[in-house]
């Protein structure tokens, strides 16, 4: 049986303040994502591919943050910050599959917007119920298969250390604890990174086509600004936070305070899950109107 792993906490002061802020953020994340999911489920007008993909994105935010926030909140109130070997591997799987699923969903959403704006006459013949179901399954199953392979390979490693250099378990920190060569793990890890760089390239190509189309046809510009700008903002959030986390974990300076490194490392588990539903809720008129209509209906029923 492997020894428990110790997480590296740099938040030695103001723990109660951090606990309160983290709890507030987690409550907001749950509220805004659940509100948007229920709005899309209960409002029949929103049973369209774009909103189904959006619902999938919100569900993924709840899935990913549940792997981090409860444990982090418990650790803020504890004097010891440890996690079991099995718990560490599970956290790696859930957090990594959450991050890569976000990329897959954003790629699917960019494809949907490309069809809706650039090929509107073919949209309904291409984006059938079967195609939507396939894309939803693709965006969830492929990341889970990739991360299952990563975690299974990591679970075979023999560790010579038990200090994880983060607030949570992530694969690079886990690999660095290995006693022996991790070349095969690194090859698989780079393959997964290349796969999702391919997703990012596909998204950029889709939006290049959308921008070109919007510039050529001004009547389509309003639809582009209304439905695609939120996608771009979400994408920038995800790429910026994940890129920092991946690059800093490998090439960052050791002179940076641990508390700052920890804060930067958890951004992608706080900012995108909290902002994505707010961005969509505020910018997509149909979602916003449906949400307020459902709220008014609930008040009338209660009254």
From TrEMBL:
The chain crosses the membrane at residues 16-38, 50-69, 89-111, 132-153, 187-211, 232-251, 263-283. It comes from the Eukaryota. InterPro entries: GPCR1_Superfamily_Member, GPCR_Rhodpsn, GPCR_Rhodpsn_7TM, Olfact_rcpt. Keywords: Membrane, Transducer, Transmembrane, Transmembrane helix. Residues 32-280 form the G-protein coupled receptors family 1 profile domain. It is found in: Membrane. Pfam families: 7tm_4. Its main location: membrane. GO terms for molecular function: G protein-coupled receptor activity; odorant binding; olfactory receptor activity. Gene3D superfamilies: Rhodopsin 7-helix transmembrane proteins (1.20.1070.10). It is a multi-pass membrane protein. One of its GO terms (cellular component) is plasma membrane. The keyword Membrane applies. The keyword Cell inner membrane does not apply. PANTHER family: G_PROTEIN_RECEP_F1_2 DOMAIN-CONTAINING PROTEIN, ODORANT RECEPTOR-RELATED. This is G-protein coupled receptors family 1 profile domain-containing protein. It comes from Poecilia reticulata (Guppy). The lineage of its organism: Eukaryota, Metazoa, Chordata, Craniata, Vertebrata.
């Amino acid at each position: 049986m492997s020894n428990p792993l110790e997480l590296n906490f740099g938040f030695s002061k103001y723990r109660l303040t951090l606990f309160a802020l983290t709890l507030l953020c987690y409550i907001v994340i749950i509220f805004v994502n659940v509100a948007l999911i229920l709005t899309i489920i209960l409002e029949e007008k929103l049973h369209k591919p774009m909103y189904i993909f959006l619902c999938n994105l919100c569900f993924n935010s709840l899935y990913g943050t549940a792997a981090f926030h409860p444990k982090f909140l418990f650790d803020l109130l504890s004097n010891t910050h440890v996690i079991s070997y099995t718990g560490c591997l599970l956290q790696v799987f859930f957090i990594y599959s959450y991050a890569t699923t976000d990329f897959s969903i954003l790629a699917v959403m960019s494809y949907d917007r490309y069809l809706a704006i650039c090929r509107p006459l073919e949209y309904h013949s291409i984006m059938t119920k079967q195609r939507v179901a396939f894309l939803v399954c693709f965006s969830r199953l492929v990341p889970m298969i990739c991360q299952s392979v990563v975690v299974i390979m990591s679970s075979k490693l023999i560790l010579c250390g038990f200090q994880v250099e983060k607030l949570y378990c992530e694969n690079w920190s886990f690999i660095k604890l290995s006693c022996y060569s991790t070349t095969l793990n690194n090859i698989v890890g780079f393959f997964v990174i290349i796969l999702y760089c391919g997703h990012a390239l596909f998204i950029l190509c889709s939006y290049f086509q959308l921008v070109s189309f919007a510039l050529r046809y001004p009547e389509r510009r309003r639809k582009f600004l209304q439905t695609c700008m939120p996608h771009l903002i979400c994408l920038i959030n995800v790429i910026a936070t994940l890129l920092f986390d991946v690059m800093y974990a490998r090439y960052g300076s050791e002179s940076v305070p641990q508390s700052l490194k920890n804060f930067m490392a958890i951004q992608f588990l706080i900012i995108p899950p909290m902002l994505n539903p707010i961005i969509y809720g505020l910018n997509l008129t149909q979602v916003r109107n449906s949400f307020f209509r459902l709220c008014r209906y609930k008040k009338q029923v209660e009254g």
